[in-house]
Design goal:
The structure holds three protein chains of three kinds.
Chain A lengths: L19 H7 L3 H11 L11 H10 L6 E6 L8 H8 L1 H15 L3 E6 L7 H13 L16 E6 L9 H8 L23 E5 H13 L1 H6 L8 E8 L5 E6 L4 H8 L4 E6 L5 E4 L17 E6 L4 H15 L5 H18 L5 H17 L3 H5 L1 H10 L1 H5 L10
Parallel strand pairs in A: 1-2, 1-4, 2-3, 5-9
Antiparallel strand pairs in A: 5-6, 7-8, 7-9
Helix pairs in contact in A: 1-5, 1-8, 2-3, 2-5, 4-5, 5-8, 11-12, 11-15, 12-13, 13-15
Chain B lengths: L29 E6 L2 E6 L4 H7 L23 E4 L6 E2 L10 E3 L3 H16 L15 H8 L24 E3 L9 H9 L6 E3 L6 E3 L16 H5 L5 E3 L3 H9 L4 E6 L1 H6 L13 H11 L3 E4 H26 L8 E2 L4 H10 L13 H17 L6 E7 L3 H5 L15 E4 H10 L21 H4 L6 H15 L3 H4 L14 E7 L24 E8 L1 H12 L9 E5 L17 H16 L10 H9 L8 H7 L12
Parallel strand pairs in B: 1-5, 10-11, 10-13, 12-17, 13-14, 16-17
Antiparallel strand pairs in B: 1-2, 3-4, 3-5, 6-9, 7-8, 15-16
Helix pairs in contact in B: 9-11, 9-15
Chain C lengths: L2 H18 L6 H12 L4 H11 L3 H10 L11 E6 L2 H5 L2 H12 L12 E6 L11 E3 L2 E3 L4 H12 L1
Parallel strand pairs in C: 1-2
Antiparallel strand pairs in C: 1-3, 3-4
Helix pairs in contact in C: 1-2, 1-3, 2-3, 3-4, 6-7
The chains are: A alpha/beta, B alpha/beta, C alpha+beta.
Bound molecules: flavin mononucleotide, iron/sulfur cluster and FE2/S2 (inorganic) cluster.
């Protein structure tokens, strides 16, 4: 697929030519790469924000016959589409990131777990990989580096948001229901087929070639103290220019709204359905690990939106997308949704809603995986931040319904 | 790891455990931890739950079961681990670092209560109309956490239809808490694979293939899922009402036979520790309930040994001497209906290897409605035969269409240990307090060989006690101290024993019409094996298919349930390895105390061959009454 | 299912096994191919796949029931999936749905009598910047209006 848009950014959307990153990486030792990544202070872009170098070092230290590098392209968080843009327009970054990861941790196999909804880009990715094989960027003795073999396969999902959770993703790869595993042991020890596995987000991997080329320190100069580098933002909702943007960490919501041409904004959902809903009064907050961390989903709501409807949409999403194995998430989300419906039908009592908020807090700590742990976020933040609107029946125009 | 016939279980349901070191006492083998401020040292890889239990710290659980791999899905067992943002499921958390654990913080207590509230909100039905009332893990949790109202509402209408299609297992999914124990039992423990989680999100439920009813899929009726279900979602198909009706009907002559395992376990239903044999008390109880005759299934177990043992000798003779039907060796036992159905489905090409001898339950039914009816001068049409069994598959077995050789349904009802205990309670009896009494004539008390049928390896031991003596003319006691063939005992999944036949004796009268010398067995080595639980059976069958060592066996005992009948799907709940071991001890102890411990020495057996089955074991008459045929069912689900 | 259909299907599955192997990890790719060809995975196909992979049919069914894009019930030859998640919802997805429903004379979740279309909802398609969006089989269509949505339906069947 062609690059359809001119994009500008300091890292991912900057100039790059195929093979540069891998070539540089292969001239370094594995440890050098690990240290470079460490210096960059790059954190995982899939949402959890785990330091990439720690994950890689653990995987590199594990002793096993096989190791795997998995690129998490399940991008299912509502309002997130930056991974799609990377895969369509910058596949070289992602694939090279995988190759470098493989080199660093000692893996020969890379797997891209591509969500079923993105099946239409599979062909172009396969073609691209084929070209990379021809260019000796994949296959045996890559770029004549004796003994370094690496190849990438694409594995298609079949539409299940939970398969973005890394252990559920591995279950899915193994041919099972995408149900999150118990941890420990973690994938870096016991991952795909029981082998050490590093699961990384598309964007995380995409940053790697640039970090290798320009150095970890350079990367760390971007962003804020605890949030190094840049971040891709998937912006949608009520604004003039919904798109994917690359900005440094630390941008305030106000600045962001300004850039995308959002007007009369009432609320911004940061981090998708599992993120939090920020009201106007807090638009000076910064998007960064210090303040509001995110995987990059930004959904903008203007003054005409009914926040209860928004919340209902999110809760319906979780009720359907929970894998259904653990109690707090399976039944808890249903209860939260029921609570929203009670408000909708004016059948609620505040004492029951308080019980539900309490339940939400239990879900955050007692659920088995990140889905159930984060699904109450919007419930809690929308009911808290928009209580005046929701409980005083000033709800405006319906959400396009 | 995958796709081996013996490893088909979904990896998600396998314990992603951290193996414990062999020598935890060595440096690096143990970790120092703190639970509720208490300093402890535990072997690396110990789960938090294990550590708590070993130190008498109570942590509630629901999805956890000692027999099964770890699921970590109910989240009832959560605890706080210092420096971790979220609570951790103690059953699923292997300790690999020095951590500080707190099992009773406000957050933990609240989370557990919430989880119980959530489960109750979807749990349809009332405790007082549930057979698990007073023995339900959800109920216990609700009590433990002082639930006095439904915090998050309560489902008012059932969501599912109760599946009563199976003769053996009833599924009431409205009581299901999705602990997945049944799945782990069916797929991992038994490797049958009827049940799995179906759907996702709020639609998740436990289902069968295409959500068909149980009778339409490949369920072997072993009922192991029932034994491990924490609630009343799974139960056996209960015939108590019909049996009460028969008892209350003065025209009916209601006869009950009891298998060896129920008596070794029924005390548990009355609050006794596992391992109390209640034979005598049970006899009294069954009479007080109103059964007209109380018989011992062990009698037909002895008969089974005579028939099955003879069949084995004939198969060997045909194969070794006549060179015929070599493929019919090894002979497989056929007294476990779960195993029989398993074979019919998964290895139908081997049904000829199954002994054609009926199970003791079915032999007794046939004998009662023919010989007994004749002797007692009762119209068999008026006889109702009930069989107390440790087993849910027996309910299916007695309903097999071919089991009508008496001219009637040979066994009318299969009753589980649990259901009998219930009938006893309904009669107002506290079993342990009853005086003991004997079994009724004309079958009287049976041999210890019949008794040990209840434990895995027991059928083989009983058979060898007889076959060895018939062939060598010597005494088993000369080979095995006190006639206890210990290599066949225990709970090892698969056991293999070789028995050289050095000397042979006189051919007994009853075999003279087949051959007149045992010389063909002289110097031979009898190879036998024992497997319990269908997962182990599968391993043996795969080995046989591959021409491995078990294909050279002569006789193999298969039991569908782990532990054999004493671990059957009709036994008291709960079950675990310790409980099963105690039941086995009770059975073996009772055997040792009996005057007659070999089937062929049971005088009633002699009587029956002299007076009724006059052409001897495996003769024409016994074939009509005591033998059966099997069906090649295959795996295809229509 | 007719006997010859079964034979075809059995052969097809054998070829898939050859292509993907018989390890459990081959399950999803195999199911995906059957799904994309037949738009559903019949009970016979499920059992055949289970047999080849040495797993139980219920495990195959269980997996199918987990994933939104796999079906065990017959569907139309073309599956239309309209995104119902928040960003598309806000971009008036309901007008798209209504237009499609009217055009095909069926409701969401149903299949047309001529078996040409099944229409259903799906969760976020990852096209939130270009909503409202929908998928028809493996293709996606964005920035829909009621009119273009219906036009795409007709284009797909040619
Ligand atoms: C419900 C859920 C969905 C997730 N979805 C994704 C996803 O679509 N893409 C992704 O990269 N990470 C996703 N994650 C995070 C992954 O579990 C994992 O942390 C991530 O892939 C690790 O890569 P990173 O360190 O590069 O971020 C999800 C987590 C949860 C709990
Ligand atoms: S939290 Fe939700 S998605 Fe995660 S394991 Fe539990 S039920 Fe599944
Ligand atoms: S007992 Fe530990 S999660 Fe259920």
């Amino acid at each position: 697929m062609e690059k359809t848009k001119e994009r500008n950014g300091k890292v991912l959307f900057s100039n790059y030519s195929l093979g540069e990153g891998v070539r540089k990486a292969l001239s370094l030792s594995r440890d050098d790469i690990l240290f470079e990544v460490k210096d960059s202070k790059l954190k995982g872009r899939g949402g959890a924000g785990f330091p990439v170098s720690t994950k890689w070092m653990l995987a590199a230290a594990a002793i096993a016959e096989e190791k795997y590098v998995i690129c998490n392209a399940d991008e299912g968080e509502p309002g997130t589409f930056k991974d799609r843009v990377l895969l369509v327009e910058y596949p070289e970054l992602v694939f090279e990131g995988m190759i470098i990861a493989g080199y660093a941790i000692g893996a020969k196999n890379g797997i891209v777990y591509l969500r079923g909804e993105y099946e239409y880009i599979r062909k172009s990715l396969e073609d691209f990989l084929e070209q990379m094989r021809k260019d000796n960027l994949l296959g045996k003795n890559i770029l004549n580096k004796e003994g370094f073999d690496f190849d990438i396969k694409i594995f298609l999902g079949s539409a299940a948001y939970i398969c973005g959770e890394e252990t559920a993703l591995i279950e899915s790869l193994e041919g099972n229901r995408g149900e999150a595993r118990n941890r420990p042991p973690y994938p870096v020890n016991t991952g795909f087929n029981g082998m050490p596995t590093s699961v990384n987000n598309v964007e995380t991997l995409g940053c790697i070639p640039h970090i290798i080329l320009n150095g970890g320190e350079w990367y760390n100069t971007l962003g804020t103290e605890k949030s190094s580098g840049t971040k891709l933002f998937s912006v949608s909702g009520d604004c003039e220019k919904p798109d994917v943007y690359e900005w440094e960490w630390g941008i305030t919501i106000n600045e962001l709204l300004e850039k995308v041409g959002a007007k009369n904004t009432k609320a911004v959902q940061v981090g998708g359905a599992s993120g939090i809903c920020v009201p106007k009064s807090q638009f000076d907050r910064k998007i960064s690990y210090e303040d509001i961390p995110t995987g990059g989903s930004i959904i903008i709501f203007d003054e005409n939106r009914d926040m209860l409807k928004v919340l209902k949409n999110f809760m319906e999403f979780f009720v359907e997308e929970s894998c259904g194995q653990c109690t707090p998430c399976r039944i808890g989300n249903t209860k939260l949704l029921e609570g929203v419906e009670m408000i909708e039908n004016e059948e609620y009592t505040f004492s029951y809603l308080n019980k539900l908020k309490d339940l939400g807090k239990t879900m955050q700590v007692a659920s088995k995986c990140g889905l159930g742990q984060s699904s109450p976020n919007s419930f809690l933040s929308i009911l808290e931040n928009f209580k005046d609107e929701i409980f005083s029946h000033e709800a405006g125009v319906e959400n396009g319904k | 790891m995958e796709n081996k016939k013996n490893g088909r279980a979904p990896v998600s349901q396998k314990p992603h455990r951290i193996e414990k070191p062999e020598h935890p006492e060595q440096i690096g083998g143990s970790v120092r931890i703190q639970i509720n401020e208490k300093e402890l040292v535990v072997p690396l890889g110990t789960t938090i739950l294990e550590a708590c239990r070993d130190n008498q710290i109570h942590v509630p659980t629901l999805c956890h079961h000692d027999d099964l791999c770890i699921a970590g899905v109910c989240r009832v067992c959560v605890v706080e681990v210092e420096n971790m943002r979220t609570l951790q499921a103690s059953c699923a958390f292997p300790i690999t670092a020095p951590i500080k654990i707190n099992t009773a913080t406000p957050m933990v207590r609240k989370a557990r209560k919430h989880i119980i509230d959530l489960l109750l909100s979807e749990h349809y039905g009332e405790c007082y109309s549930c057979f698990r009332n007073n023995n339900c893990e959800l109920q216990t949790l609700a009590k433990e956490y002082g639930v006095d109202h439904y915090n998050f509402g309560h489902i008012e209408k059932p969501k599912y239809k109760v599946d009563t299609s199976s003769f053996s297992v009833v599924r009431d999914m409205d009581k299901c808490v999705l602990c997945k124990r049944c799945i782990r039992t069916c797929i991992d423990l038994q490797e049958v694979g009827v049940l799995e989680a179906v759907g996702r999100g709020d639609e998740t439920h436990i289902g069968t293939f295409l959500d068909k009813q149980l009778s339409d899929v490949i369920c072997i009726n072993c009922g192991q899922c029932i034994n491990r279900c924490p609630t009343g979602a799974l139960r056996a198909n209960d015939p108590r009402d019909e049996i009460w009706e028969a008892i209350d009907n003065p025209k009916k002559h209601v006869v009950i036979q009891t298998a060896p395992s129920p008596r070794a376990a029924i005390g548990e239903e009355f609050g006794l520790e596992a391992g109390h044999s209640m034979t005598g008390e049970l006899n009294t109880a069954m009479r007080r309930i109103g059964f007209d005759k109380v018989f011992d299934t062990n009698f037909t177990a002895d008969l089974t040994i005579m028939e099955e043992g003879t069949e084995l000798i004939l198969r060997l003779y045909n194969a070794l001497v006549k060179g015929e039907d070599a493929n019919k060796v090894p002979q497989f036992t056929s007294c476990s209906p779960g195993w029989v159905k398993y074979l019919e489905h998964f290895y139908p090409e081997y049904i000829d290897n199954l002994s054609s001898a009926k199970s003791p339950q079915q032999m007794f039914g046939a004998v009662i409605k023919t010989l007994y009816a004749q002797e007692a001068n009762i119209d068999p049409a008026d006889i109702v035969t009930v069989a107390v069994m440790p087993c849910s598959a027996k309910k299916f077995e007695c309903n097999r269409p071919e089991m009508v050789d008496s001219g009637f349904k040979d066994v009318d009802y299969g009753l589980t240990t649990r259901e009998l205990a219930q009938m006893i309670k309904e009669t107002g009896i506290h079993l342990p307090e009853l005086p003991k009494s004997e079994f009724d004539d004309p079958f009287g008390n049976a041999s210890g060989a019949g008794l040990i049928f209840g434990a895995t390896g027991g059928v083989m031991e009983a058979a060898l006690r007889t076959v060895v003596e018939l062939v060598t003319g010597g005494k088993v006691e000369d080979l095995f101290e006190n006639a206890n063939i210990t290599p066949l005992r225990g709970f090892e999944g698969i056991r293999y024993v070789e028995l050289p036949i050095a000397e042979v004796g006189e051919v007994p009268e009853m075999y003279k019409r087949y051959f007149d010398t045992w010389d063909w067995l002289k110097g031979a080595t009898l190879k036998v094996a024992v497997a319990h639980g269908t997962a182990n059976a599968k391993k043996v069958m795969e080995d046989i298919k591959a021409g491995g060592k078990f294909s050279e066996c002569h006789f193999i005992e298969f039991m569908g349930c782990p532990g054999g009948c004493l671990g059957g799907g009709g036994q008291p709940i709960p079950t675990n390895a310790t409980i099963r071991a105690k039941r086995a001890e009770a059975i073996y102890a009772e055997d040792e105390g009996l005057p007659i411990r070999k089937s062929h020495e049971n005088p009633h057996i002699g009587y029956i061959y002299e007076n009724f089955l006059t052409d001897g074991p495996c003769g024409h008459k016994s074939h009509e009454l005591l033998h059966t045929t099997y069906t090649k069912r295959g795996e295809y689900i229509a | 299912m007719l006997v010859f259909e079964k034979t075809f299907l059995a052969e097809e599955i054998e070829q898939l096994i050859e292509k993907y192997g018989n390890a459990r990890s081959a399950l999803l790719p195999i199911l995906q191919e059957i799904q994309s060809k037949h738009r559903y995975i019949s009970d016979y196909a499920q059992q055949e796949v289970a047999r080849h992979l040495s797993i139980q049919p219920v495990e195959v069914y269980s997996v199918i029931s987990f994933y939104a894009f796999l079906n065990s019930e017959p569907k139309g030859r073309n599956i239309v999936r309209v995104c119902k998640t928040i960003s598309c919802d806000m971009k008036n997805k309901i007008s798209i749905v209504k237009a499609i429903e009217r055009e095909l004379g069926i409701k969401m979740g149903e299949t047309t009598d001529d078996n040409k279309f099944t229409i259903e909802y799906t969760n976020c398609l990852g096209l939130c910047d270009e909503g409202p969006a929908m998928g028809i089989n493996e293709q996606v269509f964005t920035k829909l209006t009621p009119e273009t949505a219906v036009k795409h339906l007709h284009e797909v069947v040619g």
